[in-house]
Amino acid sequence: MKFYLLVVLILLGFVSTHRISYDGYKAFRIRPTTISQLKTLSSLSKKPGFDFWNIPRVINKSIDVLVAPDLLESFQTYLKTNHIIYHVLIENYQEVIQIENVALKSKRLREDVSFKKYMTYEQIVNYLKTLAKKYPDIVTVQSIGNTENNRSIPLIKISTGGSNKPAILIDAGIHAREWIAPPVALYTIQQLVENATNIRLIQNVDWLIVPVLNPDGYTYTFNNDRLWRKNRSPGRRCYGADINRNFDFHWMEGGASAYECEETYAGSKGFSELEAQALRDFILANSENIKLYLTFHSYGEYMLYPWGYTSDLPDDEPELRTLGTAVADAIEKASTIGTSYTIGTSTNVLYEAAGGSDDWTKGVGGVQLSYTIELPGGGSEGFNPPTRKILPVVRETWEGIKLYQAYIEKKFAN
Ligand SMILES: *[C@@H]1O[C@H](CO)[C@@H](O)[C@H](O)[C@H]1NC(C)=O
Ligand SMILES: *[C@@H]1O[C@H](CO)[C@@H](O)[C@H](O)[C@H]1NC(C)=O
Ligand SMILES: *[C@@H]1O[C@H](CO)[C@@H](O)[C@H](O)[C@H]1NC(C)=O
Ligand SMILES: [Zn+2]
């Protein structure tokens, strides 16, 4: 009996040292109304104990921040004395994680796709392999590279054959904790491959989809730290670089960090990271065909296009804006959850962030049309939407993706 108790205690200890707890962490929604409020909040974003879920940059736009228990009192005093508008979004973040954990365990999947839960990396890989077996005429799955922990980065190609067709490249999950992004890629795959009524969407356009670009980080969010963002490459003091600051186009010119412990650490040099290298090499090898690049992130409901390194506009800004606006409108029209996108260049709408995959893809990779889509978040229910909202999000986003397809087919297919 005593021995049994000891084993249980050791196991509990093992689990608790390996899983980060967010017990007592509170999430706040803040609305800075002056430049000085914005500046003070920005300075906090570099301090340990503050996790900004969106980076403070614009006046009167709400910012969500998660605050560690030992900083709560001084933070709330600071907000009150400075008359900053805020409310508590989530009382105790660990409770959100516990609800999520129950949902994760609810159903074991082998080879099917699900939009009733968030799937693990292994489950996603198994689904892709199953499709390749079941639909060999239109599906091929390849690895575009391996990660630090030797996980393969899978890419699924959906094509009815023939050469010189325009292609749409989609990735998701560059940032590990943005769990709602991979399901959008998976729903696209499912609708294109398994829904026969969508056959016309693959007749004149090829699809190249990477549902999880950061397998190590993504797996780490399931097993260790629910809010991990970067990859898992080892540094001298901290793990991980922000893959979406690591692309070598105006690298480190703004909105990125040179300190490896920070969330936006850009890596030791441009393309130091395996995941960024893998995507770069794939795009360069296929740049003649790729006509549209979509990269899915969360959250914020932003439809963004280059540039992210400067507030200057690209020459073809009107085309990028018109197309992005039409897509955002289609999504909003289909939305059952009140989604509303803000459209514009990354720098002007959101914040300066050099080294992003969208900038490099357009600036160097030869893909004229390049978009970063910040999907809806979970609001008071967490960083990600609760599982019952996965289906509404992927369905409404799919309406926008179909519009992108129609544009590419019309412009490039003959
Ligand atoms: C922000 O909102 C406040 C009112 O809450 C308003 O007085 C101010 O003009 C707004 N500033 C900007 C830049 O929109
Ligand atoms: C990495 O994975 C590949 C298969 O993807 C395997 O052949 C290789 O042995 C692995 N290397 C290590 C060091 O585990
Ligand atoms: C298949 O696609 C059609 C429209 O393209 C849609 O109406 C239908 O709901 C889809 N079926 C499934 C099972 O997703
Ligand atoms: Zn992101």
Automatic annotation (TrEMBL):
GO terms for cellular component: extracellular space. One of its GO terms (biological process) is proteolysis. The keyword Zinc applies. This is Zinc carboxypeptidase A 1. The keyword Repeat does not apply. It comes from Brassicogethes aeneus. CDD domains: M14_CP_A-B_like. Its cofactor is Zn(2+). Belongs to the peptidase M14 family. Residues 1-17 form the signal peptide. SMART domains: Zn_pept (SM00631).
